[in-house]
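User: Last request for today: this protein with FE2/S2 (inorganic) cluster, please.
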Amino acid sequence: MRVNVTVNGRPMTADDVWEGESLLYVLRERLGLPGAKNACEQGECGSCTVYLDGAPVCACLVAAGQAEGREVVTVEGLAVGGGPSGETGLHEVQRAFVDAGAVQCGFCTPGLVVQAHALLAGAEGVPPDADIREALAGNLCRCTGYEKILDAVRLAASRRHPHPPP
Ligand code: FES
Ligand code: FES
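Assistant: Here's the final one, the structure of the complex with FE2/S2 (inorganic) cluster:
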């Protein structure tokens, strides 16, 4: 089947999509967007998190056909336009993960960045740690012990100006 989806603001089409294919597979293997990672393919790890019509979802759990006519924003899309650190093009949340040392192997990072972005889009100031932990509870990291990730979210929140949704 053919799937038409707007990804990071651009209309895209994937052809010959198999009925059982996930949105994650289409993004990575058909549309050339490897940012969202495939770790568990079972909705357990959050490494594949993308926005679907403005809400974070596990792309491995979304059938490609369900994305027909909808809007997807991936971690690559957050970088477009960047944040205040315009010289690199990184979004301020992405920059904070780098600056806080929250990226080790990096496999979990795209999903955490999208989920943290969603948290900050709906929060004023620096969210309490309990809110950050709850928001990121579905995103597993095997490397960092999570403290640097909390630091990154606090750093992004403390640096930001009003934080528009994607
Ligand atoms: S790959 Fe989707 S939740 Fe793990
Ligand atoms: S940095 Fe390796 S899994 Fe999180």
